[in-house]
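Dear Dr. L.,

I hope this message finds you well. Following up on our conversation about the binding site, I have prepared a predicted three-dimensional model of the protein together with 3,4-dihydroxybenzoic acid. For your records, I am including the exact sequence and ligand specification that went into the calculation, followed by the structure tokens. Please feel free to forward this to your student if that is useful.
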Amino acid sequence: MRVQVLIIGAGPAGLLLGQCLLREGIDALILESRSREYVLGRIRAGVLESATVALLERLGVAGRLHAEGLAHEGFDIAFAGERLRIDLAALTGRSVTVYGQTEITKDLMDARDAAGGKTSYEVSDVAIEGFDTDHPRVTYTHKGNSQSIDCDFICGCDGFHGVSRASVPPAAIRLYERVYPFGWMGVLSDTPPVHDELIYVSHERGFALCSQRSRTRSRYYVQCPLSEQVDEWPDERFWAELRRRLPGEAAKTLATGPSIEKSIAPLRSFVAEPLRFGRLFLAGDAAHIVPPTGAKGLNLAASDVYYLAEALVGFYKEKSIVKMDQYSARALSRVWKAERFSWWMTKLLHRFPEEGEFGRRMQLAELEYIAGSRAAQTALAENYVGLPY
Ligand code: FAD
Ligand code: DHB
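The resulting structure of the complex is given below.
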């Protein structure tokens, strides 16, 4: 069998790229190791930059997003008894949209099915060969049968633990990494959000975040030690800890209820360079990870796909390799800026016990400075709504 482009991974990066190529008539197959239901059940991102929304619009998959997504024109930062509103709309003229990654994934899967796009779920033993030649090949097992596909290009959209980046010889790739000494304990619950916008909380006991998926579904996170397991966090403990970290009014009005999902996510900054190895391209979490503070992960997957789709369309439609040659540098230039912002916001808002009292006072001084400076708020806001492509 043969396709023009073989995409590994049906997360947001793979499905978005698949949709870009479908609309241009470029023949692609997506291989996914998990089942469709598993991919749809993974609770992750919830905040979309306006450029991500614009990309989904151009791809014809923003109907439900516009009907059900919530436009947010600002968010709060709570610290030391203060509650600072960052007015995204006034500072940047733009806003963000709250719409779950699971919903985007579903919309993209439905659009792909409707257009006859090919996806194989529950594949195993995916291996890639010859990406440094003109004849790359991907082999895998599907429903007990060994398969082999020849293609022009392989797009590794298979997340942090995928096979694509791992197939590159170590000498050809440079990795940059920082692992943070804590995680995020996240709870999803069918309770009304405590506030109509997000609240990021810097508290002596650690960071907390009040997010949401709809007017009736909340998503909350608290910073927790990496040594702790989900089963050490019964719902009562989670709600009590969250309430202790929330500012007075929010603590009073917080509605609690049974969790419908609960998980601990480690925090990591990671970048692989470059993003192209002959006929293999990396995009999304396969190439880089940001700590979740600032909500950049899914949005970076979208900007990578934007540049990668331009590269592939340039090759097939305009017979030009210019954008293909530029892909890695264009995508990485935006990636590093989002890495910086996510690292900065993580450092600003979390408790780092090893930094001691001096470190804490530096955080509070920086928060006070932001509260008193429109310039500092503008810098924060323009990164939060997303830097231009
Ligand atoms: P993934 O979503 O990881 O998809 C990769 C896919 O490849 C998976 O489906 C996987 O099963 C498949 N795969 C792996 N290996 C193979 C293989 N060998 N063969 C075939 N398939 C394979 N980002 C934001 O922008 N905003 C947020 O608010 C936000 N919040 C987050 C909150 C949490 C708790 C977490 C954990 C993440 C959050 N993120 C957020 C990050 C965001 O979820 C990720 O950046 C995003 O999922 C990346 O998409 P991806 O397609 O690159 O990778
Ligand atoms: C969410 C996650 C984030 O990392 C963030 O900064 C904002 C919202 C969320 O999952 O809703």
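In brief: Residues 322-349 form the longest helix (28 residues).

With kind regards,
A. P.
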